[in-house]
Amino acid sequence: MGGALEGIRVVDFGHYIAGPLAAVLMADNGAEVIHVDPPAGPRWDTAADAFYNRGKQRITLDLKRRDDLDIGRRLIERADVVIENFRPGALDRLGVGATAMTEMNPRLVYCSLPAFARADPRVDVPGWEGLVEVATAGYRTIGEHWDHTGRAHVDVDDPSRPLFTAIPVASNFAAFLGATCTVMALIARERTGRGQRVEVPLAEAMVEAYSMFLALRVYRDAPPTATFPISDLSYRCADGRFFDCTPYPRFVLPFIEGAGVAEEWQAAGLLDVVGRRFDQRQQQQTQQRFRELMRTRPAHEWEELALKLQLPFAMVRTPAEWLTLPHARESGTVVRLADPGLGDTWMTGLAVQLSATPGAARPRHLPDSDREAVLAYLAALPMRTPPAEPVDPVLSRPLEGLSVIDLTQVVAGPTAGRLLADFGADVVKINNPRPSATDGIVGHLHRGKRTMLLDVQHPAGQAVLWRMVDDADVFLQNFAMGSAERYGFGYEQVRERKPDIVYASVSAFAYNGSWGPRRGYENQGNAATGLSFRYGGARGWPLYQPHLVNDAGTGVLGAFATGLGLLHRYRTGVGQHVATSLSQSSTLHQAAYLIGYEGKRWDEPSGVDARGWSAVQRLYRASDDWFFVAVGPGGLEQLTQVEGLEDIANDLWAAAEPDGPLAVALSRRFASAGRDEWIERLRAVGIGAHEVVSLDEAARLLAERGVVTYEVGPAGDDVPTPGVGTWLSATPPRAGADPGPVGSQVEEILGQLGMRDRMDDLQKRGVIRIPVDPPARLV
């Protein structure tokens, strides 16, 4: 097969980012995608079109004209998947909405990615990216940012100001989750014979982006724990460049030794960290010594040392540097395509890799260039036949009855496993039995899983693991390259035992390419690929994005890759190795800007002082608080109808850059009245405007749809925790229960394997551990 989705026909009515990106993920993996452009051309007519519509045939249709609407309807009648991201009801009014078309084509998977759900009270808010972000806590304030991400080093005029990011986080997560849900719906179709509706609103997808920050609120009142005195993430080096560290003793101590200063520091009492609590003076002294050390060499030399020592550190690169880095190109994380409009172009590559059904990025077609081919396709292709008798008519979730072994740690890998559990798989999460190995477990990452503390490096532990493999459908791991093979359960070793296994790997920088063995976490993935540079880099201190978008995004892509592998197995009986990485997720998040071609200008909004994409897509401060304004095409006439803005000079419209004359004029006007008053005035003439919503308020607004739930926190108060939306109409995902103390299900799991009689012996030998008290659950 030429891709896991070969033979799957997709009609893409998407515009801007969410819909087209979901369709790209399908096209890259072999689906036949036809993209429908509106009569005025692509909604986002920039170089980004080269990425968002690559690998698709294109036809221009005016769905308000009867003949074109008929073409669109006939495309849907013959499709397996429809993807659209209009406001709820927009396509229903034209007669090509989900209800009508799934009745006409019962095998159809109809994927909608609106800004807000039909039942959301904000459904009438225009779906501009910035409006969705401020409505869902996408722009956190500077003051909410973690100290160790650099706040102490960043000079800002107002710590309460929202931190704008040009990364379209809401659209990206809706696309990631929309593509994943669509593949899960196709798996369900293989089992039931019938399609269904998929709906993932951008506002609900944002919960996945900020899930870790939401989850950590459960523990915000817990007592502090001892910390290592070196806590900063980024450091300025001798050449003015920045270097990103992972500030844990097991990484920093060998780094200091490799730097040749360990003996001196030891004599000063700075390296004795075992069992110590550091007072403020000691912390400041050690931290300052480390900062001074980092200024003694250029960033690339520190990176060479970290690579030699196999430590998860990385030099902060610009997006342009990542695009030209040999590893990025060797690994396929960025690819070169011969674009018909831009010429030779480098851009974001494949989001996932599959060994048996490798995907491929293909150049875009220009708008309406495939009209004759599409019409000929319609003439030759019959309508879909009614579904056969369902194989599994009572299926409640797509992965029901499937078994997953989850050996992952930290965030990205466990997120993938948690999503597989949400979609119905029986996921067994295995942790090392050492007490310290359960530190850092965050409840929502392992909801719906069964957990066991098992030493898989011990021969007796491996015997248990191999018995589990016999019954498994998926083997999920995120070890450093080569580690699984050394332990005896790499892909080839597991496949020899279970030929049809879907073996899923989540890594830092992708296993193929010269950086395959490199280790890393969220911040290294961001630093190496240019994502953290966007808040400063050469111009100032680099920072994280407002949320852990890389870890969370990688987790979703891990579930997507696994779903592709399972779908292929359902269709052919063949298993394979599927993989994704932090660097692929981070690169995909930047796809709108990470496009290199002759004449390219790297001028997207960046830095802590950025407010928006333009003067009319921008954060503004009223007399009392911040809000976002989003004016659509032709909006000058609307803008001058707003009370208090009637005399804004027409010639300012030509200077609509984010901090240009129009932005300056609007800033002065908006400062003259309160936020709520301006929002009311702007909405009265049809201009999008929305206040900046806090994380707690965003959670409250989504709780009614189950995307956020509440539990009792340590202080006895109700705190929000991440849930999951009812995103599939027939086989919706469901948030499982907290498994309790890690390892609680060991007796049940061993009994299921027929090994209950070995439990006492395994416990005495330290191969398993049965928890007595709940472990520490802080990160």
Write the topology of this structure.
Elements (H helix, E strand, L loop, with lengths): L8 E4 L5 H10 L4 E6 L11 H4 L3 E5 L5 H12 L3 E4 L13 H7 L4 E4 L16 H7 L33 H24 L3 E4 L2 H8 L1 H6 L17 E3 L5 E3 L4 H10 L3 H6 L12 H15 L4 H11 L4 E2 L3 H6 L1 H5 L3 E6 L3 E6 L4 E2 L16 H10 L22 E4 L5 H11 L3 E6 L18 E5 L4 H13 L2 E4 L5 H5 L3 H7 L4 E6 L14 H8 L19 H24 L3 E6 H8 L22 E3 L2 E5 L4 E5 L4 H5 L21 H10 L4 H10 L3 E4 L3 H8 L5 E5 L5 E5 L23 H7 L6 H6 L3 E2 L10
Parallel strand pairs: 1-2, 1-4, 2-3, 4-5, 5-6, 13-14, 13-16, 14-15, 16-17, 17-18
Antiparallel strand pairs: 7-8, 8-9, 10-11, 12-18, 15-25, 19-20, 20-21, 21-22, 23-24
Helix pairs in contact: 1-6, 6-7, 6-21, 16-21, 20-22, 21-22
Roughly how many Å is the radius of gyration? 26 Å
Q: Tell me the helix content.
A: 25-40%
End-to-end Cα distance: 43 Å
> So what's the overall shape?
globular
* Tally of alpha and pi helices: 28
Mean pLDDT: 88
- Portion in strands: 5-15%
Main sheet specs:
8 strands, mixed
Class inferred from helices and paired strands:
alpha/beta
What strand line-up does the widest sheet have? 12-18-17-16-13-14-15-25
Query: How many β-strands, per DSSP?
Result: 25
Q: Which parts are unreliable, with pLDDT below 50 for 5 consecutive residues or more?
A: 219-226, 774-779
